[in-house]
Design a protein that fits this description.
The chain is about 50% helix and about 20% strand. It has 3 domains: about 130 residues, Response regulator (Rossmann fold), CATH 3.40.50; about 55 residues, no CATH class; about 150 residues, Heat Shock Protein 90 (2-Layer Sandwich), CATH 3.30.565.10. It has about 375 residues and is an alpha/beta fold. It contains 11 helices and 12 strands.
Length: about 375
């Protein structure tokens, strides 16, 4: 009947009756236990502090300090709270049982002692003790992991603050100096072109910085659109103007056709979403082609469609392009609509924050990025 839980375990048996102590000792030693005996409460407490047993079999009715008082004293000692205590008594009434529970007992055995019951209860108590220790270890591990994640989150927030504030300030300064140069009428034409490109680049970088912050907010469930009536035509035309330099450099024309002029959305988030999608389309549109921006009002809401005439995106990869830093490659290993960062991820998060959806269709040739913003009552 020997068990791994009882083998080599140290058991403290406390009883004022010598015959009971002897029976418990022989029974438990047959199971491979190391048994220590105590004949009264004070002796039991001293032995516990000295030997640190794995389990205690404790008689209730003893002269001087009874088992309930011994249990309470042991529970207050270091390691006493985790040590299983099995009360042993000849009393079989509910009041005694309730008192044993209140005192902190783990189990309750009645006399006369039956060896099989004693062994089974001790084994059970030791198993529970081991499982409790394992649970504590798992809890401690989870706590360390949680603390590590919280620390990582705080570091992430500090990085976001650095990105937004410490990078945005010099970026604004660069744009300000570029504006000063742009107003200099004596600046040669080629220098004016360079200044214009500097300003376009700073605007693009500024948008990327703010997109990064909003993606971080979305991860924490804090990206909340501030909806208002948006002049969609004005917004799209402003985006087209901002990206006209990029389009011109790549030999791409921008085509705008809007069948609806208004939408209810967060104007800043929507403007940056449209800018990201148009910029992405320009990047992959072949020279001498067109990128079209279309808007229609449907039964489900306002639908925006940004199309290019590039190589398109394979159907099985159309969801992955919205993942951070996604790369979608053609058979020739050339990147096709690779997000190169977080722009398309940002677009998906913004659309979903508006309770809308975003998807990709074939343009034959090329790809169409479609987004639907539902009507707001």
């Amino acid at each position: 009947m020997s068990d791994l839980e009882t083998h080599s375990a140290t058991i403290l048996v406390v009883d004022d009756n010598e015959a009971n102590r002897a029976l418990a000792r022989s029974t438990l030693e047959d199971e491979g236990c190391r048994v220590i005996l105590a004949s009264d409460g004070r002796d039991a407490i001293a032995v516990f502090e000295r030997e640190h047993p794995d389990c205690i079999v404790l008689d209730i009715r003893m002269p001087g300090m009874d088992g309930f008082a011994v249990c309470e004293r042991i529970r207050a000692l270091p390691a006493g709270a985790e040590t299983p205590i099995l009360f042993l008594t000849a009393l079989r009434d509910i009041d005694t049982f309730d008192h044993a529970v209140r005192a902190g007992g783990n189990d309750y055995l009645t006399k006369p002692i039956r060896p099989g019951d004693l062994v089974a209860r001790v084994q059970s108590a030791l198993k529970v003790r081991r499982l409790a220790a394992e649970l504590r270890e798992h809890y401690d591990l989870l706590k360390r992991q949680r603390d590590g994640l919280q620390r990582l989150q705080l570091q992430k927030e500090r990085l976001m603050a650095f990105v937004v504030h410490d990078l945005k300030n010099p970026l604004n300064s660069m744009d300000l100096h570029a504006q000063v140069l742009q107003r200099d009428r004596g600046l040669p034409a080629h220098a004016q072109d360079s200044v214009t490109q500097i300003r376009a680049g700073t605007r693009k970088l500024g948008r990327m910085i703010v997109d990064l912050l909003d993606i971080s907010k979305a991860d924490e469930g804090q990206l909340a659109p501030k909806r208002s009536a948006v002049d969609l035509r004005r917004l799209v035309e402003a985006v087209a103007t901002d990206l006209s330099i990029d389009a011109h450099e790549r030999g791409v024309t921008l085509s705008v056709s809007l069948d609806t002029d208004g939408v209810h959305a967060d104007p800043d988030l929507l403007r940056r979403t449209v800018a990201n999608l148009v910029e992405n389309a320009i990047r992959y549109a072949p020279p001498s082609s067109s990128v079209s921006i279309r808007a229609t009002r449907t039964e489900g809401g306002t639908e925006l469609r940004i199309a290019d005439a590039g190589r398109g995106i394979p159907a099985e990869m159309r969801e992955s392009v919205f993942s951070p830093f996604a790369q979608v490659e053609s058979g020739e290993q050339a990147a096709v609509h690779a997000s190169r960062g977080l722009g398309l991820t940002f677009c998906k998060l913004v659309v979903e924050a508006h309770a809308g959806r975003i998807w990709i269709e074939d343009a034959d040739p090329g790809a169409v990025f479609c987004l639907l913003l539902p009507h707001v009552p």
